[in-house]
Every structure is written in C-alpha cells, then in structure tokens.
Amino acid sequence: MRKILITGGTVFVSRYIAEHFVNFIPEYTNEEKAEVYVLNRGTRRQVSGVHLICCDKNNIGDRLRNYHFDVVIAVNTYTKDEMKNLLDALNTVKDFIFISSSAVYPETLPQPFKEEQPCGENSIWGAYGINKLEAENYLLSQYPNAYILRPPYLYGSMNNVYREGFVFDCAVAERPFYMPTDGSMKLQFFHVEDLCRFIDIILRIHPKRNIFNVGNAEPETIKSFVKACYKALGDKPQLISVSDEHFQRSYFPFHNYSYVLDVSEMLELMPETIPFSKGIRESYEWYRHNSNEVNKKPYFDYIDRYLK
Q1: What is the pLDDT of residue 304?
Q2: CA–CA distance, 35 with 33 (Å, rounded to integer)
Q3: Rounded Cα–Cα distance for residues 139 and 137 (Å)
Q4: Is residue 29 over pLDDT 60?
Q5: Closest CA to 231 of 170, 277, 186, 184
Q6: Superfamily (CATH) of domain 160-188+217-257+274-301
Q7: CATH homologous superfamily, domain 3-154+190-213
C-alpha cells in the first residue's frame, strides 16, 4: 500500500488533496487505496480516514523518524525554513510534489508567464512570492527530481477564501455587483479537483519536466467570473462600474493585477480541465451548506458606506 504524506490536510487545498487520496484508487496499478498521513497541529477537524501526525511544521523534530513515505505533497509550506524543516525530518522519499504559486513571476515579465522565465519579486504579492521561490530553490537543491506546481487562483469545494463565496452572497441577497472599472481584468482559475488529477498524472508517468504552470487554458474576466457565479444560482447580475479612486480590495476579493499563465506544458499531459461554469456550480453547492467555514471579509460594509 502506497504511503502518502500531505502537509496540512485541514483547510481548502491540503484538505481537498487529503480527501482525494483517501478515496482514490489508481486505475493504472493493482494498488489499493493509499495510506494517507497528514502533518498538522491537530487543532481542526481532520479528514475521515487519514492518519494524523500531530506537530507544528516549524518544529517537526524527530516526529517523522519512524515513517517512510512513497509520496510527499507539500501544500502548506511557504518559506525556505519550513521546507528545510520538512526535508530534514524526512527519510528517503520516492516522489515529492510542492504546491508553489504563480506569485514567483515578476509582474514586469511578458505574459503569459512561462516556466522558463526568470523568477523573482512580484510587487503585488511581495514576500509571499519571494518566500515560495526560495522554498522551490531549496527543495530542488536537495531533491533535484522533485515536482513543482505553480497554480493561479484555485477554486472549488472547501475554499475558505472569500472569493466566489462573496459573489454568491451578493446573488443570494439579490444585490447589484460593484466591479472594478469595466470588468475586463483577467482572472485565471484552476479547480482543485484538476490539481489533484494532475498530481495523479505526475505520479503515474513521472515526466522529465520538473516545474509546471497549472491552470485553465482560458482566463476569465471579472465580468465573466461574476456572471458565472450568479448563473450558478439561476440569476443575472446588475453590474455597476467602480472608478479607480476606490481601493479595489476594499470591495472586491482580487488584487488589481491581471496576469495569465502559459499552461501548454500541463495541457500536453492533461488536455481537459473542468469547465468553469460546472466548477462554479459545484463551488456554490458546497458553499451554501458550508459558508460558516469561509473567512469572510467586510466588503458589504464598504459597499454600503461608500459605493451605494
């Protein structure tokens, strides 16, 4: 039985990946379901069926000394120090996959961003992108055959970030939607289930390439994103344009930053992704039963005070 370690395992991406592998039976082998371990502090509800290794990621010590894993998927690893702590604690690992970020690409580079372009500071994401890049570099210095995935905005069930959830709330309340300027800014998404599917592919075929941009082939615009969210409820939004004089993040859940990834290398291995309209409908079905799990922000307060 294959043993998989997932760092985190309780919130959004790491939780979804943990649940995926607890239930996943590879069609390409004679293996049974994997034996899934999660490494976290044990302060949140755990996915049913996982084995909890309870410790702080910054103080792992010898907690992994007696474990041997076939696969490690580092999801909630954000800095070089966190990566070093994890690698120092591990015994030999066959496959290592790091969920990094598209924030490693400077916004000054030509778009769409390609894996071969130089990485560095992005003024929008700041230290987050630099820290992810340093973690990438340290990982490859220790595990040259590790795989690094760089997603754009992830969405889907279990999303605790108040993005599509905010738009759903607007639709439920039958409110107009206040969008930045003309709503043409591009937003690239990737469904967390597609992320799991691509991890499965990597573990099956072990491609020679180590770094992959992942994401939908076609980006959305703010306008098409909002319309898809309202449509999931069978509604159409009344769109109201907001001028640049208002700070975008005060009333809208995305930075004023339009970027697109070149995902052609991913598409060579996984040609189809979940249609955005379908993924958003699934997101709404989860959200309407689990909205209490989302970290909501006071966008409505700002809108009601300054934009109405």
Answers
A1: 97
A2: 7
A3: 5
A4: no
A5: 277
A6: UDP-galactose 4-epimerase, domain 1 (3.90.25.10)
A7: NAD(P)-binding Rossmann-like Domain (3.40.50.720)
